[in-house]
Amino acid sequence: MRILSLIWRILLFYPVAVLLSAFATINETTYTNAIYFLPIMSLIFISGYCIRFFMYRFESRHKKTTAFLEILIGIIISVPFSILFLKINNTAENVFFIILYITGLKAYSHTFIEIINPWYFGASVLGHIVTAIMLHSETEIFKETPFIFLITVCLFMILYNHRNIDVLMQKRNYGKEYLPESTERLNRNFTIIICIFSSLLLFFQKQINAVFDFVWEIIKKIIKLLLTSTNEPEEVLPNGSGSAEHSEKTEIITRDNTLLNNVFMLIMMTFLLILVIRFRHTIATFFKNILIDIINAFSSVFKSKTRTENSDPRGYTDYVETIERKQTNDKSTRKELIRKWKKNLKKYHSMSDGNEKFRFGYMLITFVCRIKNKNITEYDTPCEMSRKFEDFDISEVTHIYDPIRYGDKKCSTHNINAMNTALDKLRKKLK
Amino acid sequence: MSVFVIIIVFLSIFLLITKVYNKNMMKNFSYNCFFSTDEAFEGDEVEFIEELTNNSFLPVPWIKSELSTSKWLDFAEFQSAVSDKSRFSASFFTLKSYSKTRRVWKVKCLKRGSYIFNNIMVVASDLFGMNISSISISEEKLLQTKITVLPVCSVNSYDKSNIKNNIGDIFIKNHIISDPFYINGVRDYTTTDSFQKINWSATAKEQKLMVNRNDFTTNRNITIILNIQSTSYDVTESLFINNTEICIKTCASLLKIFLDTGISVRLLSNTVFEYGDIPVDIMCTDHMSSLRILSNLSYKISTVFEKYLEAIIPTLDSPEIIIISPYSNEYISSLQYIFSNIRIIVPDISGGNNI
After folding, report:
1. Which of A70, A149, A153, A164 is closest to A115 using CA atoms?
2. What is the ipTM of this complex?
């Protein structure tokens, strides 16, 4: 559980990293760094999510394939939607990211399916579409990163809340009667807040934009003022003209940008370094376990017959083994047996008359039982065997067989003829 | 255009998988379950085994087996829901092609009784959860899941020195045959007496044929009357099963003491067996069979204990009667003053584990 929480927390820093990178390039018109970050981080996220999901697979209470279905729905909704209407790959990636994120959240909360109601998924899909429209907006304030960050914060709160419920329920032995109602209500409220927030942004984007732009301009001016007061700009050429002034401004902005970039990069690196040092043991154990799992998985692939044991702290142990494939089906087995019987019949006819021939003939009759799936056991007497032939009467042959097999009686030609007749009839029946 | 092609391809794959799974998913699939042992003692940990076999090429990505049993079989603590008397648990599997999964649950037997998995439902689904097929387990297979949990013996207040009094035969006034091992004197020889019985020293002394006079004895047996009521106010069923369970444990330990010393015990109780409304009146001869009897006692009250005692005590000819009851009242305590052969044991209820 700790490892899962750690993965989630690391993944949560994805938008933070994007946000930092976006801030680092605050005065640039294009979000080059952010765009550069997005696909890589998405890839990390997806692989992280897959690892997490496969880890859940071994915890039976999370073993539900509906998460696969949700991913599929997410892809079907987001990718064609983005390609058709938005025509921006970056946006598509973002939407895909959010869908994956909420899918992950859903998978995480599978144990508490009663807490997250079915309408939650519908609301999430609606939220995604709203987000996509938001991201499509040309307004600067609605560029991807801040919005994603806000959504992520909300989701993080829900996620954190769920983690607490998980811990609580684990203590309460997952008794349904102890479902915390207050936390359920809190979750629902968070979801409603997200939906309302998204809707507000959609419907009042112009007004909000105006307010934010105004505030943003002030902040920019303050930053500029502060930077110009601390760092004196280099002197420009004395013969000033309109174009010269413009180049001066550009130079200041570029220098400001470099400074900000460096500051944010420093913060980000320090932050990551602290994280790595803080969780170094956990990370090392996690990667070690993954490596062992991968090696085991590969070794099991090349083994034809395996027997694995998955011990679970939840009170059970799994033994998985590969079973032998059926070489032939019933029909082919029957054909094979008939062929074998006919081969033995030829052998019978080639034998010289005597007790041995009669006994071999009787063996052929019992062989028919196998062909007709009438089980003859080792302890069956000839009389019991003859009773198993419901569709064919062999009592006459059995009557002759008993004294030949168990007495000293010698087989006569008449007896052999009786056996021949019985075998002929059987041969015709087997056709 | 390409988007539509992608969607069509997606849909066709989806439909194909759905159809294939619909037709072949449960064709060569089998489910089996059983306990590792038929009998266990209270508090023991036994194994419950679920065996799933997929004998086809098609993997089954999601299988759920829903198990329903008594709440006194403790297993899958994180995945089970416990209601009033039942425990529901769901077990999830993924089967690869031509594979067999054997899941071994550790089951802890919390309380004595005879348990069976009431209902097992196996549900399988394809990758997208569109086809859901289910198998209900036959009654024959469900019978394989029967386990008898025997009660454990508790340390009780029964004075073991009393056992000494209970060992050996008891002298009685009259019987059909006299006991040749007990001689209480000599008498004159009669023509019906055997020569073996002649006491030669007495004959020499009396100068006439004298024979040994033997006592009449009978086997010592004890009757235990178990009160299933937890309080005197219980009418149809025992309300505080913890109290009743302590009494049963005490009874088990007494049975062990007596049966080990070779004393046969008659067990009576104001309850019925779980498998039918048969009144409890059993002659116990060995310890294990007596534990099996105790494990099958229900909490139903056939007759109120006081009335039961009134009816049963006059019919008993046992030299010693032990009454085990979780409570005592005036009537019960007065019995040991009226009848000298009655002893009452009231176990210490406060010391027992709460169930």
Report:
1. A164
2. 0.70
